[in-house]
Amino acid sequence: MAAVEIDLGKLPFDIDFHPFDHLVAAGLITGDLLLYRYNADSPAQKLLEVKAHSESCRTVRFINEGRAIVTGSPDCSILATDMETGSEIVRLENFHGAAVNRIVNLTESTIASGDDEGCIKVWDTRQRSCSHSFNAHEEYISDITFAADSMKLLATSGDGSLSVCNLRSSKIQTRSEFSEEELLSVVIMKNGRKVICGTQSGTLLLYSWGFFKDCSDRFVDLSPNSIDALLKLDEDRVIAGCENGLISLVGILPNKIIQPIGEHSEYPVERLAFSHDRKYLGSASHDHLLKLWDLNELVQDSEDGAKNDSSAEDSDNVGMDVDDNIPTSSKGSKKKNVNKGPDPGSSNNFFAEL
After folding, report:
1. What is the CA radius of gyration of the chain?
2. 144 burial type by CB count under 10 A (0-12 exposed, 13-18 middle, 19+ buried)
3. Of 89, 132, 152, 310, which is most buried with the most CB atoms under 10 A?
4. For residue 92, how many C-alpha atoms fall within 13 Å in the half-sphere facing its CB?
5. In 90-246, where does DSSP find H-type helix?
6. Reduced to 3 states, what is the DSSP secondary structure of residue 121?
7. pTM of the model as a whole
8. 206, 217 contact by CB (below 8 A)
9. Can you tell me the distance from the alpha carbon of 336 to that of 118, in angstroms, rounded to the nearest whole number?
10. Which residues of 3-22 are buried (b: 16+ CB within 10 A; e: fewer)?
11. Distance from C-alpha of 203 to C-alpha of 130, rounded to nearest angstrom
12. Compositional bias of type Acidic residues: which residue ranges (predicted)?
């Protein structure tokens, strides 16, 4: 049983926790942005309900030390909302030429966004401009993660591939071979040596850093359904949320299901996130519920438990970035019928008013 359950009323697409307060935001299929204050000893309190977008609110992130919330939508707009008042700070129309599907924080001053046509944009909140733009994929961007030490952005896509975008060179460094299934989620583990991707079939694909053309290992026993969300607990364990509603703790190399964490009664798990203090795991599902699971004991076990056997790892030379050729897809590109807007570029001062 979850420590806290919040009935959002409608299907949620994304959740994000405030960076230092007991607040959680959710974006709904209705286009609404909700903000709650949570406490283990009392029901969650709704603080804000904002009609953020004319279409669904697919992605939500706190920015600027939690003072603002950024949301993205299929209406191709990005909205920044004041966290205290719920008032609109700025709305940028045609931020992307297609539906905005994912926004993630990279550093304290940069975010990345991905759209339904495979384009990724990086925004620098200090320079208040678009600093990078990558046409990385042929289908929607499903997930993005950031390797801060090497300044590389990794993204998964519905086209069945994993991309590596180099922020130092502003180039797409490499892209994996195309899988026959959609890649839906991605995390970096094993101190940067492994990249784990969740797939539509329920298989986890493991890539070795620097050898991204093809996966080095597969874990096929996790789920018969798609792995829609991955959240790294530590360097050896990842939390997986699946289409069948199950949330599981999974060991990587050796690959094993460690224990179930919770479930959403067979409803797909759309998103997973940690609270700022890592006391709670938040899960949002198609059952319209946001559940907060108490992870205190689990995290303590992680800190005190024995590490997995490192001999299970393969012997790839992980210090090399040897992949540098981008494959051409053999798949047909399924472009969506959307009205193209202007390239935001550096001229659109999105963060000027934040």
Report:
1. 19
2. buried
3. 152
4. 26
5. none
6. strand
7. 0.88
8. yes
9. 11
10. bbebebeebbbbbbbbeeeb
11. 35
12. 311-324
- At position 201, the amino acid (one-letter code) is S
- CA pair distance 175, 192, nearest whole angstrom: 17
Q: What is the residue type of 79?
A: L
354 residues of the chain, pLDDT tens digit each: 678 999 999 999 999 999 999 999 999 999 999 999 999 888 999 999 999 999 999 999 999 999 999 999 999 988 999 999 999 988 878 778 999 999 999 988 899 999 999 999 998 766 667 889 999 999 999 999 999 999 999 999 999 999 999 999 999 999 999 998 999 999 999 999 999 999 999 999 999 999 999 999 999 999 999 999 999 999 999 999 999 999 999 999 999 999 999 999 999 999 999 999 999 999 999 999 999 999 886 655 555 554 444 445 554 444 455 666 666 654 443 333 333 333 444 334 555 555
User: How is 16-83 classified by DSSP, letter by letter?
Assistant: EE-SSSSEEEEEETTSEEEEEEEETTEEEEEEEEEE--SS---EEEEETTTTEEEEE-TTS-EEEEET
Tokens 């806290």 sit on residue: 4
Cα 94 to Cα 29, 78, 118, 343, distances in angstroms: 20, 8, 15, 8
Q: Other CB atoms closer than 10 Å to residue 288's CB: what's the count?
A: 17
Q: How many residues are recorded in the chain?
A: 354
